[in-house]
Design goal:
Blueprint (H helix, E strand, L loop, with lengths): L2 H22 L7 H29 L14 H13 L1
Helix pairs in contact: 1-2
């Protein structure tokens, strides 16, 4: 992992962590400090976790596996996803 990868993928961690901190800011609950510490650690470590999961998945599969078969965006799959989204 390099800096470019980290900075390109840090936004979801910051958005999610910031939202959690914002929503819990005015509440008093027993483990507030622990919750904030875990949220801050998650904000910083999100890109590292994402990289580790991608690296582990690519150890067991090839990159072309993720662009073919079930993961390919085909018209049939899009229709099935539309039906699923409409029922949920």
């Amino acid at each position: 992992m390099n800096r470019k990868y980290y900075f390109n993928n840090m936004w979801w961690g910051w958005v999610t962590g910031g939202y959690m901190l914002y929503m819990s800011w005015d509440y008093d609950f027993k483990y507030r400090l622990l919750f904030w510490c875990i949220s801050l650690c998650g904000m910083v470590l999100y890109p590292v976790a994402k990289w580790y999961i991608e690296d582990t998945a690519l150890k067991f599969t090839r990159p072309d596996f993720w662009n073919s078969g079930f993961f390919a965006d085909t018209p049939g799959k899009m229709g099935l996803l539309a039906v699923y989204t409409g029922t949920v």
